[in-house]
Amino acid sequence: MPEDLTPIPAATLVVFRERGDGPPELLMLERSAAMRFAGGAVVFPGGRVDAGDRAFAATHPGDPDDLAARVAAVRETIEEAGVAIGVDLPDLPAARRALYDDTPFGEVIAGAAFDPAALVPFARWLPHQGVAHRIFDTRFYLARWRDGAPDPAVDGNENSQLFWSSARATLAAADAGKVRMIFPTRRNLERLALFNSFEDAVADARAHPIDTITPWIEVRDGVDHLCIPEGLGYPVTAQPLGAALRA
């Protein structure tokens, strides 16, 4: 397989902030327009698994691929949004700068306990090879934002803005043309819009298998649709291909 088509392990984190008067809000980022992948689109924080993530995972028990992905999700969320999940860092801004300087995760959190159980597996997406110049094998995790934690702050590099919004409100913004949204983000927000609490989302995640989702094209009523499997918790499993943004 050509190197540029080899799937790149990646991870993303859906961070919930509970509200007393409505559905939970999710932390969303808008990618800088100049970014090659999903430029200008709203996404959850996340990115590729790097060598430091794998090195840290290798020193801990459990599935090394899953643990490396959890580390990547946490590291990327610190870098992109200044939010630390599953680890208490006495100087979060300094940790963020160190990660940006490519200091390995294990060195940055030295002396602090890391709790991978703070992340709950939710989904795994792997686009069909040939639809993009790079293919990401992305694991999605759920986590709860800790009350009293420092407010998120955009990195100003890969992302142009961040915001808290319910899944339904973000979908409505996309329908109104206010934000751009790639196909996996939309399908996951539609699923997340079903939940009225973090606990509801966790229960649903545990009730469905984490099968790798690879969308395919299928003709329905004479129109090409981009489709995903039934039975994995997604309320919408097909979208006309012409309306689907595929990064």
Automatic annotation (TrEMBL):
Single GO MF descriptor: hydrolase activity, acting on acid anhydrides, in phosphorus-containing anhydrides
Domain Nudix hydrolase: residue ranges: 6-187
Essential cofactor(s): Mg(2+); Mn(2+)
Keywords noted in UniProt: Hydrolase, Magnesium, Manganese, Metal-binding
Protein's recorded name: NUDIX domain-containing protein
Organism expressing this protein natively: Sphingomonas suaedae
Upper classification of the organism: Bacteria, Pseudomonadati, Pseudomonadota, Alphaproteobacteria, Sphingomonadales
